[in-house]
Specification:
By secondary structure, the protein is mainly α. The protein is built from three helices and no strands. The mean pLDDT is about 85.
């Protein structure tokens, strides 16, 4: 019973991680689209450097999410290969199969570490983009304060 419960928990965790990855991918894409709609009639100014950094962070976040998904795909293929080797090839040539399984395990471990790293950076870069976007909006609002204050005192 413990093996079945463990498999169920692993599948659930993997499904939730994939949902989270796709959510972050959609968030990064939506953030890029939204930011671009906010600037379609503006001329380039110094404050746009923050917007450029936000766009770069979101693009990198999206890229890291794609890299993570690629690593998941390779890990799944490695698991399929491991099962194939253990069930079929191991009976025919145990020594060679053991070496091949070790090689698959190394590939799996490397992709798992790289996938975890890509997933972590996807999350970090999404929020870094949000901070740069907020900084850009603050700079935009701040640039209007003196002009509005000047109009208010001139009219009164």
């Amino acid at each position: 019973m413990g093996g079945e419960t463990e498999r169920h928990l692993i599948k659930t965790q993997q499904a939730e991680q994939l949902k989270f990855t796709y959510f972050l991918l959609a968030s990064a894409g939506a953030a890029i689209a939204f930011a671009l709609t906010q600037t379609h009639q503006q001329t380039l100014a110094g404050a746009h450097a923050f917007l450029g950094l936000a766009l770069a962070m979101w693009a990198l976040s999206f890229w890291c999410g794609c890299i993570y998904l690629r690593h998941v795909d390779v890990m799944l293929a490695a698991n399929i290969e491991r099962v194939r080797l253990q069930t079929r090839f191991f009976q025919q040539n145990p020594d060679r199969a053991a070496q091949m399984i070790d090689d698959v395990n190394v590939t799996f471990s490397n992709k798992k570490r790289a996938g975890i790293r890509a997933s972590r950076w996807q999350y970090i870069l999404l929020f870094a983009g949000a901070l740069f976007f907020a900084a850009w909006r603050f700079m935009e609002m701040y640039s209007y304060v003196p002009a509005v204050a000047g109009l208010h005192t001139a009219g009164g």
